[in-house]
Amino acid sequence: MPPITVASVSANFTRDLDQNFALIEQTLQDARAQGVQFVAFPEAAIGGYLSSLGNHGDTVATTKRSLPPAIRLDGPEIRRIQELAGDTLVAIGFCELDDDGVTRYNAAACLDGGRVYGSYRKVHQPLGEHMSYAAGDSYAAFDTPLARVGLQICYDKAFPEAARMLALDGAEVIVSLSAWPAARTATAEDLQDDRWTYRHNTFDVARALDNQVFWMASNQSGTFGSLRYVGNAKVVDPGGNVLANTLLDAGLAVAEIDVEGTFRAMRGGMFHLRDRRPDLYGPVAESESASVNGWRELARA
């Protein structure tokens, strides 16, 4: 397969769906002008994210007005994104409404004008997010015309197992869609120096290198409610090299990637997935390990 041009998006999305669609359309126009074939939009690009996090944040119990609009994977909003996408492959985040008409998920889909290739419901939930969304329960990669792709959302990147599951399922490109904010306390004056910006960037590089995959990290930028987003949308290669980065700005991180050539060169030597020792990793997958129980005992003390 020949090299492809990809772009990760840093942009600000609100509750205003008209604003969202207009921004998505303009971003896709800008991307196509640069020859981009695969565009990764942020978490909650359709309808915006929660306005705050923590026990005082948005919850179904306390308010409905501030929650993102819940949409169905087969609904008109997703069809609208497909119309805008055309021949461009797009990954995008939204609040998914389950078939029961009640349950909400923080979700993402990968699609073009003709097909939805795969979707994902966020598994790992930070800081009270569970009060607004149900948690997903699986990771699976899927084939697209450009590469085999895996999706994850924001806090998932802090868990090596999440990316590893996708890599083991053959993902060549993992898209990490985020609404990643700056620290809530002792926030750095320059957000590029903020400790949560550091974590966002470090996880992106580590997960790409851990699994020797291409990593497309999108993120919200600007502010929404009490959250200040750190941008830093990027493309990382399987060696952990950042090929493009928006830093704090809104815009596109554009890079050409050669999946087949890079994998052949890099995985021909040290191949992390091949050299694993899963026979020794038992406690990693145990739901209640001794170390976790030890920390819980300390917390109770």
Automatic annotation (TrEMBL):
Name-wise, this protein is Carbon-nitrogen hydrolase family protein
The organism that produces this protein has a lineage beginning with: Bacteria, Bacillati, Actinomycetota, Actinomycetes, Micrococcales
Q: Which UniProt keywords apply?
A: Hydrolase
Q: Which organism is it from?
A: Curtobacterium citri
Q: Which domain of life is it from?
A: Bacteria
CN hydrolase domain ranges (all copies): 4-259
PROSITE patterns with a match to the protein in the record: CN_HYDROLASE
The protein's GO terms of the molecular function aspect are: hydrolase activity
PANTHER family in alphabetical order: BETA-UREIDOPROPIONASE, NITRILASE C965.09-RELATED
